[in-house]
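Recall that a protein's primary structure is simply its ordered list of amino acids. Everything else, from secondary elements to tertiary packing, is in principle encoded there. The following example makes that idea concrete.
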Amino acid sequence: MSIYFLLKHLHVFLALASGIGFGLRGYMRLVLNRPLAHPMVRIGPHVVDTVLLLSGIALWLQMRFPLWSWFGLKLVLVAAYIGLGIAAFRQAKRGPGVILYLAALTVFIGIAALAVHKPA
């Protein structure tokens, strides 16, 4: 088995885990209005997202994608997703928090769509 195969599948798995985790945390925090107090809910996403980012960097280094391509757009979308997610969870008011949360989920879906349908 090649290192690319392992990295790609690790990256896809972590991306799914990150998206599902973000969706569940947002639902708990913004819809159910419950605090995210459990250590697994507070620390776990940082571990998953850090390893996800490292696997993405490793794939980029191995494949040598140019920054001025779909890969660069994906990086911009990842930065937007992180910013919107942080803003959503820091909102004191529920309405704006839900809007930012939904925007972050939309950007996450855009990232996934770009990864699946990237140009050759």
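The mean pLDDT is 89. The longest helix spans residues 3-31.
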